[in-house]
Specification:
The chain has about 375 residues and is of the alpha+beta class. It has twelve helices and 13 strands. It is globular.
Length: about 375
């Protein structure tokens, strides 16, 4: 049962009642009044001693069918408004299709994003074909960003990303699942202490608990630094939302191991469409003059699971240990962009070399702050 308090108001308990069921017997919930305490509480209507609530995931009609979920006039109007009349007319034949061939997916992607480089179009098309996704359903995006160096625009790069709703849909196809105990939510200090052994006051930490139809459960954890502004903040995106997305992605990967796409950035699609990001180039641009992209971050965020904060790729160079620990003001290393630039300047290390040094395969796996990462790398070279 859940008692009302400053976090769970009586109004919130009534909302829980509408969207959740008992985690034990799958029965309905009701809000009761504890006359002794003078407080309301939420509990199973079949047995008030049952503990836990769950919310069954059900994809929306648009997530499953895309524009096909609407009648034809509405569909045409929405597509024309979002894509333009020409593109909408060309792509209407693919509305609702979730078994695209690679070539069909490439046609859709190159029509919506005609300036995207072929390598990223191909990468996104392979994801669509393998996982039954469709860009017209806002499952997959190609996001451009300006690459800057020394304050000057030196090029443009692109990256293929998935929306968090596409991740949910892929998981749902692998099996039904539910969200436990009103998650995602912010982790308590007690939870951090129990799980991590300490409380991290430098980040917002979120937790997501999932359960599949067989009773298997998986928790997921996701952080967002308190001193970093998330991409899309001007449109309402928040640090809490980014932490939620990261924790949910982590939980889905655990519950449906082997079913979820790996090595692909996951973002909140609400802040993806029509955006051009700006990043600071670190090192030299990719050789060969082609455009490319990879999961990363720029000056405004980390680029772990679920973020749309991206940064341009660099040409890889071999790491060369410095003779002495550089005298650098650690307070200047606030973002991963700062970390990569500092490691390039001080140790001649590019991003991949930094990952190798930290023992991770991508930035998604890094849980330390940029400053802590730099301190680790510098200490190894003393």
């Amino acid at each position: 049962m859940i008692y009302e308090d400053e976090n769970n108001t009586r109004e919130k308990l009534f909302e829980f009642r509408k969207t959740n069921i008992c985690a034990v017997c799958k029965g309905g919930l009701d809000v009761f009044l504890d006359a002794d305490l003078g407080k309301a509480f939420l509990a199973c209507r079949n047995d008030r001693s049952h503990q836990g609530i769950l919310r069954i995931y059900e994809p929306t009609p648009f997530e499953e069918k895309g524009y096909e979920a609407f009648n034809i006039p509405t569909r045409r109007e929405m597509m024309s408004e979002e894509l333009g009349t020409g593109k909408a007319t060309k792509l209407v034949k693919y509305v609702g299709v979730v078994s695209l061939t690679r070539e069909q997916a490439m046609e859709i992607l190159s029509t919506i994003w005609p300036d995207a480089p072929e390598v990223e179009v191909l990468k996104a098309a392979m994801i669509c074909h393998q996982y039954g996704l469709n860009p017209l359903m806002k499952h997959v995006f190609l996001i451009p960003f300006k690459r800057r160096k020394g304050g000057q625009v030196v090029g443009e790069d692109w990256v293929a990303v998935l929306g968090i709703k596409a991740n949910r849909l892929i998981a749902h196809r692998a099996g039904d699942y539910s969200y436990l105990d009103d998650t995602p939510r912010i982790m308590t200090a007690q939870e951090q202490e129990r799980i991590f052994g300490e409380v991290d006051d430098s980040k917002v930490w979120a937790i997501t608990k999932l359960r599949d139809s067989k009773g298997n459960e998986a928790p997921g954890y996701g952080p967002w630094p308190l001193d970093e502004v998330p991409y899309g903040a001007e449109k309402g995106n928040t640090k809490t939302n980014m932490a939620f997305i990261r924790s949910e992605r982590n939980a889905l990967d655990r519950l449906f191991a082997g079913e979820m796409p790996q090595g692909v950035e996951v973002i909140d699609e609400e802040y993806a469409s029509g955006q051009i990001l700006e990043g600071e180039a670190v090192g030299e641009p990719p050789k060969g003059g082609g455009k490319s992209g990879e999961q990363a971050e720029n000056e405004s965020g980390e680029g772990k699971p679920g973020t749309a904060v991206l940064s341009p790729p660099e040409a890889r160079t071999e790491a060369t240990p410095a003779a002495q620990k550089p005298k650098r003001d650690l307070n200047t290393i606030k973002t991963f962009g700062d970390l990569y630039q500092a490691c390039l300047d001080d140790f001649n290390m590019d991003r991949q070399a930094v990952w190798d040094e930290l023992g991770v395969s991508s930035q998604i796996d890094i849980v330390e702050t940029p400053r802590e990462c730099y301190q680790r790398i510098a200490a190894a070279r003393q």
